[in-house]
Amino acid sequence: MGDAEAQPARLPCASERHEPARHDPVYAALDLGTNNCRLLIARREHRARRKSDMLRVVDAFSRIVRLGEGVSQARRISEGAIERTLAALDICRDKMSARGVTRARLVATQACRAAENGEEFVQRVLDRTGLELEIIDRETEARYAARGCGALADPQADSVLLFDIGGGSTELVWLARAAGAAGFELRHWTSLEIGVVSLAEHYGGRSVDATTFAAMTERALAALSPFAAMTAVERRCQRFHLLGTSGTVTTLAGVHLGLERYDRWRVDGLWLSDEDATKAIDLLRAMDFDQRSANGCIGPQRADLVLAGCAIFEAIRSVFPAARTRIADRGLREGILLELMEEDGLRASER
């Protein structure tokens, strides 16, 4: 990846909140995407039996705000989307203050990158909530996703394709085994300007027949073509697999498991065979809008978006065939937190 790197956000009212002891810092990562506003607050947890440091979650928050609603056509964030998002960010600010967060990164992605009034929106957030958002570039977004999900890659595979189907963009990262090392290195990456919100707004998401689904898949295939050419020379061993993070793949996992309500602990880390992925997509495509709305793993707020995500996933599976996909209910926020903790560890060792 390049040198572009998000800087720590400055949290407001530090004198008004309880500061934890120096030896027990509290970190926060906020991911404001095209569709969701997600906050994760955690401490560092070191387990002696493992070589890596783990995250101990203190608090979390997620709300569908549809910040990017209409941005693909109007190129502007609407007033309604701004108000929905500000209300969610008020809650995030209060949670960070109550938990005594000492370091944070608060990032915005595709909707703010694409909107003409993205910077204006960031200023409104600062004025209203005191939270200092930063609009990160595509490369930084892909790097954070890879850092947050990388632990789920099969350690015996020579290469893995990580993908993150978002609301306004889709990130793909080719991970390859580093020469002489146990882990993976980021070999290639791309960010496609296609996501579940933009695709559903263009083709429609409530009623998706076979023709519409095929058209969405073809659109995704065309967008994938340059990355497919870029990675064509890369080695794919028998253990090559896909590693997916996003609402699309976690929903498919929930449908595959027959969950009445979504359960992160059963979904995160699940291996989904190619055959089971096809069956889950077919089950979703057979549902009408009301049935998708009533499904405990989808709900009314995502019922018009999930088939667009399935079409993107179908395209990825077609271009990068693999016997299995590992499902990650983790990603960008976890990547931010791990990097914050690593930076603090490096500073401590330098001191």
TrEMBL record:
Q: The Ppx/GppA phosphatase N-terminal domain covers which part of the protein?
A: 52-342
What is the name attached to this protein's record? Ppx/GppA family phosphatase
Biological classification of the source: Bacteria, Pseudomonadati, Pseudomonadota, Alphaproteobacteria, Hyphomicrobiales
Q: Which InterPro entries match?
A: ATPase_NBD (IPR043129), GppA/Ppx_hydrolase (IPR050273), Ppx_GppA_N (IPR003695)
Q: Which residues form a coiled coil?
A: none
The record ties this protein, via PANTHER family, to:
EXOPOLYPHOSPHATASE, RETROGRADE REGULATION PROTEIN 2
Any one GO MF term held by the record is: pyrophosphatase activity
